[in-house]
Amino acid sequence: MSHEKLTELCPIYALGALDGEELREFEAHLKSGCLACQKQLQEYASLVASIPEALPNVASSSDLKQRLLARLDHEPAQSEVVEFRVPKPPSAAKQRKVGWLPWACAAAAGIALIISLSNASRLHRGLEEQQEKLQLQIEQLKVLQRLLEDEKEVTQLLSKPETRVTMLAGTPSSPRSRGKVIWSAQEKKAIFYASNLAAAPAGKTYQLWIIAAGKPFDAGVFSVDAQGSAFVKVASLSEADKAQKFAVTLEPAGGVPQPTGEMHLLGSL
Amino acid sequence: MHKVARGDRSAFSDLFDRYSQLALNLASRVLNERQEAEDVVQEVFLQLWRDAASYSQERGNVSTWIVTIARSRAIDKLRSRKARRVFDFAAENEDETDFAERLPDPSARPENLENRLLVRKAFGALAVEQRVAIEMAYYEGMSQSEIAAALKEPLGTIKTRIRTGLMRLKQALQPGAGN
User: What is the reported pTM?
Assistant: First the structure.
């Protein structure tokens, strides 16, 4: 396979989806030391690791952390102690032949080395701890910025005169469920809230649809939290200018191009 | 991580507070079952506690490390669940879920990627076919051939969808890409 063809496999490999002969060929190519492909792969691996950041937050048990910390009692952390091995003294016969001076010099050099290494190591750790703290603060700031951006988007959308709100009611499959779409045909943006939806069964996901000119168009898949609520932002709402209805169906995980499953929410304009 | 390696519980607790939600979101999306997803989170952080001393920044930042382990463990659970149901794809598809663990870097992970909103937007802007193919691979652990078979599409089509989708994500998430 040519290098160009192999390069094209990089994203698929990074996603873990490559298989068969192509997988073997690609891995052999990597092992052969192709730096360009290794670099590209690193970039894609990093990109792939960011995919779950698009997921909505899921509620956890209140005692999850406590249970984990309790388990740590049986899981001692590995110690990071580095041993400085002092060479064993030579045999008695050899010892008689050499004087004390070389040993004194070696011991002094050894002690000096240990002191300088431990100082360097302490300094290094101190620096890393400071970096970690700084990183933590930067990330906390980013979380706040994100929340602020979310808030801003909702407010901006709500402040537009053309923005509309469409209420969705539960179908007989989910009589208690409710939904609300705040959307703008001009901006092609929407924000969707749902409540009282049951958790999707294994292998299934909820999917939001916009029905325009009699046809359904995908508006994104979503999952619900432990309380049955969902918050979805639709960055690019297809056919928004011809919208007639919004609906939510239960579909195979990952979503489908056309609705196939049971409808749980429906609302007309 | 150094503190965790030295057995510092408070540092470990901080790491848990920072990353457990992301790991739980991911595991829940893969397994669609809360108890199992919480088990994955516990296993991931226990592994982190045990292996902190061997952690090296060259293997990627902590977040990438946690996400990769969480995905790998969640997919393993999903596969063993599928195996119990006789739909065993894993047998013919050797386990390559730890592919990123073998990779040396992603230290170059752009700061922008930390931004969930940006990732959400970029992901939402993909064509639905591309998103579906990427999600089937990432969250269901399916290979390109399995996805092609499940969607009854030619293999080449699936490859193009994954490749184009990830390339578009990459472009959208590059530092300096328009918001």
Answer: 0.50
